[in-house]
Amino acid sequence: AKTNAALMARRxxxxxxxxxxxxxxxxDHAEGAEIWDVEGRRYIDFAGGIAVLNTGHRxxxxxxxxxxxxxxVHHTCFQVLAYEPYVExxxxxxxxxxxxxxxxxxxxxxGAEAVENAIKIARAATQRQAVxxxxxxxxxxxxxxxxxxxxxxxxKAGFGxxxxxxYHAEYPNPLHGISVADALRSVEHIFKYDVEPQRVAAIIxxxxxxxxxxxxxxxxxxxxxxxxxxxxxxxLIADEVQTGAGRTGTWLACEQWGVAPDLITMAKSMAxxxxxxxxxxxxxxxxxxxxxxxxxTYAGNPLACAAxxxxxxxxxxxxxxxxxxxxxxxxxxxLRALAQQHPEIQDVRxxxxxxxxxxxxxxxxxxxxxxxxxxMCAEALKRxxxxxxxxVYANVIRILVPLTASDALLDEGLAIMGEALxxxxx
Length: 426
Ligand code: PMP
Description:
GO biological process, one term: gamma-aminobutyric acid metabolic process
Helix content: 25-40%
CATH class of the largest domain: Alpha Beta
Strand order of the largest sheet: 4-10-9-8-7-5-6
Number of helices: 13
Cofactor: pyridoxal 5'-phosphate
Number of domains: 2
Family: Belongs to the class-III pyridoxal-phosphate-dependent aminotransferase family.
Protein name: 4-aminobutyrate transaminase
Bound molecules: 4'-deoxy-4'-aminopyridoxal-5'-phosphate
GO molecular function: 4-aminobutyrate:2-oxoglutarate transaminase activity; 5-aminovalerate transaminase activity; identical protein binding; pyridoxal phosphate binding
């Protein structure tokens, strides 16, 4: 019989070290919010393939839609011969994006590509070069994605030089001493110290920082950035690769801003596990690059488009936005109860079902509990729960459980989190 240990040995021999792996487990099959490994062990999936499985593993409607598409056509390259599901998906996503203006959308395969393309479009539209991103932000592993990312190790270390004209401002994070006013001042500092606003093409931010630690940008911060962008003719980009597709209780997190970004990037859960990403935005900006300047051989693959259309149907039929808010409330309530027993948990936060706890040794905010966080994840895995950590300080545990998970399964996962923390403290 296959074992995780034997497969890990083969993996180590054949694959480079730079390809990280959180747990030494090989999946065999999965369903809903559960995974079984090659040794027959069952796990509750609180990681969701890093925010990809809001509709769960192998949702029957999505599997059925992909199978049906597979029997018709599975590749033409959209820029050679088109197919309707691509256009229908663009129409439906445009209708769901905020902003009282004409919009267009097109597709790529990965989150990093969507981000790259949003920057390309902003530069072409403004004929400017500079881009402002935020410390702690994550935007992908391509050259431009790395340059925009605001975390050195492990994402940027050793991979430079990076593209020029990328500047980092501070992201609001009161827990770590950065107020909204501080963050806005740091943008003004870039205008003073580094580049005049008339040369800035775009400001890109995650509505909730994902890899950076599940820090939520307050509404007033987004509104202030919107005003700043309007004042200086800068394109505002919401990177919704992790927050999008219903994770935060609305289809897009930026719907909760009360102001609309010019461009939005999506990926991950939008196609329920099939490789698809999108740039959605203001038509007059989206139309600026020359024909042929956008696209890709696999971009907007028919199977992925069929999956994404099924994801939209499932969200409507199963009222998953409501469910996202309910899942978030249930998780936060459970984690708050846990925080009462464990002073190490100093923050329980989130937006919709994008929920996290932040751990500090002895509850001291100057001591991020890096080792405790690692041990808690390891203890959870032993007890059959897949947890993910994140954060600039590596002391955050985030939950990205499928929104289709039952309350019973959520409670089972929460109980394991409690046992795991107890065990991790020793
Ligand atoms: N942007 C954000 C906000 C992300 O969370 C990620 C992935 N974690 C990316 C971009 C990059 O996506 P991908 O890995 O699909 O390239």
